[in-house]
């Protein structure tokens, strides 16, 4: 009798647990987050952020309202002592009735790996502090796309700040300015505490386009404010580029740049892949905005054309991991290629859940596709720790009641260690040699 009661109790607990999981209420979008405005001198640096700019170099970007402010960065390894100084370039733009401030881009270096530097922009203002990435593995990336400027964005940024990461990866949709240019300024102020301390490597999304037929070309604001190392990687467009850090080669592609087999982006991608040395960088990671593998009802099929063009090339190159945004939810796939499970395919992760103003995409297609491993419509961020040349640990952290709750994780084995890179070496060579 006691055993029977025990079994009934256990079954009831399991049932209640399952019901609780099924009844999890996903959070609603929060209102736009506003930082308090403090009057500063016109030459005062604002919206400071940094990005990788070639081997042992960092690009420091900031904006001033004073067009005569110098584009110099003083820096050193001790607080208040600046042993080095670099001078950079400037740009600005006008957009209808809006005129940007003076946008400064200054490259500093060479910098020592895994070291703290103190720096000051324009010869005045506050002192900032950054840490350079390590020279070798392990390395940790924070990942969050479709950020925006809501209360959920602030929550996501707070959680990322708790993560001991080296580089932030953002697969598109930054400010959600959507033509209202001063929102680019407020976004820059919002992310400055994090983006001035660790490099932010971004690619464009649909909310960065902001084109006006016959009046304004696309990506004017994005390209002016968020200059990435495209020139350093042999690209002629800020919309796609690559960089290497520790033992990882990362390719940032443009979902909104031409990508067919005759496009400049495709030609650049082939050239870039031909230079990848999997002994020096055993991990190959790719980011773009529109996901190729998506079982959410939102944005179904939007990545199909890019996938048809580029997936065979990335498969031949043995890309380990593909990160995308656009869909305002989280989803992780098994290793997949051409919509079929493949041990030499990529793991695809959709992480467009940073906190945007449009809210979540809560509806999924059922039954769940065989390639889809985990999916949930919640705000959050991801953390990718590349431990060594063979193993990486991925985790996704849901923003639950303003606490970062780890809700999904997996160990990923590199395709170099599984033999796939060697197995497909001839296939890659043939792809790269095809005119």
Mean pLDDT: 91
The multimeric state of the shown protein is: single chain
In the CATH hierarchy, what is the superfamily of the largest domain?
Metallo-dependent phosphatases
CATH architecture of the largest domain: 4-Layer Sandwich
Structurally, how many domains make up the residues?
A: 2
Percentage beta strand: 25-35%
CATH structural class of the largest domain = Alpha Beta
Evaluate the radius of gyration.
Answer: 22 Å
Helix residue percentage: 10-25%
Largest sheet: 8 strands, mixed
CATH topology of the largest domain: Purple Acid Phosphatase, chain A, domain 2
| Total of DSSP H or I helical runs spanning 4+ residues | 8
**Approximate shape:** globular
- How many DSSP-defined strands? 24
Structural class, from helix and strand content?
Answer: alpha+beta
Question: How would you describe this structure to a colleague?
Answer:
The protein is 20% helix and 29% strand. It has 435 residues and is an alpha+beta fold. The protein folds into 2 domains: 38-132, Purple acid phosphatase-like, N-terminal (Immunoglobulin-like, Sandwich), CATH 2.60.40; 135-433, Metallo-dependent phosphatases (Purple Acid Phosphatase, chain A, domain 2). Strands 14, 15, 16, 17, 18, 19, 20 and 21 form an 8-stranded mixed sheet that branches. A 6-stranded mixed sheet has the order 13-12-11-22-23-24. The longest helix has 21 residues, at 2-22. The chain starts with a helix and ends with a helix. Pfam families: Metallophos (PF00149), Metallophos_C (PF14008), Pur_ac_phosph_N (PF16656). Its cofactor is Zn(2+); Fe cation.
